[in-house]
TrEMBL record:
Residues 166-179 have a biased composition (Basic and acidic residues). InterPro entries: LPCAT1-like (IPR045252), Plipid/glycerol_acylTrfase (IPR002123). Residues 181-296 form the Phospholipid/glycerol acyltransferase domain. The keyword rRNA-binding does not apply. The chain crosses the membrane at residues 75-102. This is Phospholipid/glycerol acyltransferase domain-containing protein. GO terms for molecular function: lysophosphatidylethanolamine acyltransferase activity; O-acyltransferase activity. It is found in: Membrane. It comes from Gossypium darwinii (Darwin's cotton). Belongs to the 1-acyl-sn-glycerol-3-phosphate acyltransferase family. Coiled coil: none annotated. The keyword 4Fe-4S does not apply. Pathway: Lipid metabolism.
Length: 391
């Protein structure tokens, strides 16, 4: 990846320069040259979007959220900036601080669980765990409501072609805790975590830096998050994989153990694609619960694939209504062959989720996403990026 980024910076696009002593040539050639360059850049962008379609924003805000907005959208955004945005920011921060205080109070005088350089409070039991769990689920749903997710459309499928409406949500969650080792979900946005917290309050894998964030760090520890260093290839990384496997196995065998939520794609997409699955969720050979998320929209897409965090939060809070559709598939019980081959297990679950969620299977991943983002941040880098991908 380092060499790729180095090439991006070391290969600026070359343009033909007119003869400074030839006034007529300068006058005649300058405009066509600009038009040709602009046309070439547009073609490069189109080709780039075809190669990296899973990360392309298709809403009215365009790539990086910097697209040219129509007048109507500008007016709606202006109104929301002075009304919805400050109100929602205040409400979101109030809910976040409230839950932080709940976590702080109910972890007082409790030593965190320390394992392989991890730190969490998932081992807490009794009323303290019950309060942290129930208040966390309620406040997560309230937070989603405050940012415009007034209704969440949930569908429970009994099999590949039929829906199961006969069981209550509480019965389903009880079964998941006893029989499922992990929840595996496609990944579109940081909002995914909020939904899963409101639904089943699982632990999840997060970057190590999250554990040090104000407010959010303690909340993550109460969830029982597994904190990882994404780029690490050391023995610590293997230790984390072992912790995840133990958590999945424990959740499958012990209904009191917190479930773990895993996004096997390893990064976010625009919601129309499903990237290759990593095998971490499937190493234990335990059953998993596949969940498919989809954010429908007319103006701004809540998917967070190629837009800055601050810009995304602002536009999200300025959207009057946000929509989330959830499809819960039946618990997937692996065959003995799948237990012996985690990659086969992961691929089969991925195929099932793609078919049930009407998602396009893509072979690109995080490395390609980084190349795409680097290209978007400078059109002069597009030709070298495309050349690398063709090679």
């Amino acid at each position: 990846m380092g060499s790729e980024l180095k090439d991006l910076n070391s290969k600026p696009a070359k343009t033909q320069q007119p003869d400074p002593n030839d006034d007529d040539a300068s006058a005649k050639d300058h405009r066509p040259l600009l038009e040709s360059t602009a046309s070439s850049a547009a073609e490069d962008i189109q080709e780039l979007e075809k190669k990296f379609a899973a990360f392309v924003r298709n809403d009215v805000y365009g790539s990086l959220g910097c697209g040219k907005l129509p007048l109507k959208e500008k007016l709606l955004l202006g109104i929301a900036l002075v009304t919805l945005l400050p109100l929602r920011l205040l409400l979101v921060m109030s809910i976040l601080v409230l839950y932080y205080l709940i976590c702080k109070i109910f972890t007082l005088c409790s030593a965190p669980n320390l394992e392989e350089d991890q730190e969490d409070y998932a081992h807490l039991g009794g009323c303290r765990r019950a309060v942290i769990l129930q208040s966390g689920r309620y406040l997560s749903r309230l937070l989603l409501f405050m940012v415009g997710f007034y209704w969440i459309n949930e569908t429970h499928k009994d099999s590949a072609n039929t829906q199961d409406n006969s069981k209550t949500e509480s019965t389903k969650q009880s079964e998941e805790r006893v029989r499922s080792g992990a929840i595996v979900s496609n990944h579109l946005s940081y909002l995914d975590v909020l939904y899963h917290m409101s639904s089943s309050f699982p632990s999840f894998v997060a970057k190590k830096s999250v554990s040090k964030l104000p407010l959010v760090g303690l909340i993550g520890k109460c969830l029982g998050c597994v904190f990882v260093q994404r780029e690490s290839k050391s023995s610590d990384f293997k230790g984390v994989a072992g912790i995840v496997t133990d958590r999945v196995r424990n959740a499958h065998q012990n209904e009191l153990a917190p479930m773990i939520l895993l996004f096997p794609e390893g990064t976010t997409t625009n919601g129309d694609f499903l990237l290759p699955f990593k095998t971490g969720a499937f190493l234990a050979g335990a059953p998993v619960m596949p969940v498919i998320l989809r954010y429908s929209y007319r103006r701004f897409s809540p998917a967070w694939e190629s837009i800055s965090g601050v810009r995304h939060v602002v536009f999200l809070l300025c959207q009057f209504v946000n929509n989330l559709e959830v499809t819960r598939l039946p618990i997937y019980h692996p065959s003995q062959q799948e237990k012996d081959n985690p990659k086969l297990y992961a691929n089969n679950v991925r195929k099932l989720m793609a078919a049930e969620g009407d998602l396009i299977v893509s072979d690109i991943g995080l490395a390609e996403k980084r190349i795409y983002l680097a290209a978007l941040n400078g059109n002069n880098r597009l030709p070298s990026v495309l050349h690398q991908k063709n090679d």
